[in-house]
Amino acid sequence: MDRIRLRAMAKINLGLDVTGVRPDGYHDVRMVMQTICLSDLIEIRREKNPGIRIRTNLPYLPADSRNLAYRAAQMMMQEFHLPGGIALSIHKRIPVAAGMAGGSTDAAAVLYGMNRMYGTGLSQNALMERGVKLGADVPFCIMRGTVLAEGIGEVLTRVDPLVPCFIVAAKPAVSVSTKEVYEKLDVEGIAEHPDIDGLLAALASRDLAAVSGCLGNVLESVTVRSYPRIGEIKDTMTKCGACGTLMSGSGPSVFGLFPDRGTAVTAERTLRKRNLTGQIFITVPYNIKSAEDKANESTYDRIQKQG
Hey, which residues are catalytic here? Predict the structure, then answer.
């Protein structure tokens, strides 16, 4: 195999709690993460000449070791002494610096794709062990689905999937530094922690309203102080019929869970009309190897065709 094309899927955080800070500065977290069908398109191609080359549709993205996809390719080439070079083509659709794991999922796709192309024989767990060296979200992006993440985000447990619904994901025209958000968080002063156990029970009950009632993110208050537009987007989604809304990760992206396509489209159009977002998408949850997953992917494809 000399070439492989992959979809690198985004994530949202249904719940994000920070429980402490480690001596090395990393934060202990307890999160519920969900893969969604919004994706970057990745092509990996073998080349005779040595080196790693990256081409993207966004000219401001780095094409060297500052790019996690580059570092993923470099890791595989060095560990397995792979001959020749690699060309990566990355078509970005996931918003950049948005709290949706755009860089991490590209790196995960490169690890997975090179493992298949070169037949290096790594299991999913082995890929995840390598992925965490690149970033805390990379193992989840390899695993995909609905997952409880603990530790610094690398201890992963698959949980009951999010019920079928429509998701509006919106990023205001600003970018946020994850590092800075965590540095500004006063862990000892957190007044209210998200109910992660309640969220897991709601997922098990297959009740979208119950899930929506348990959404929570301790980083939201930090980012909203700097970017009040996040609150405006959430309020607009709620008024348009969202069951629940939340900032994803360190932000600034916001998502809303909607029971049907009609209300999702209304929210998307309203946000566009009010110029509250820089990028906005309607998508659906992605879950592993289930009949629902196939139905969701089919629904997503129809959404894209309908615009």
Answer: 11, 137
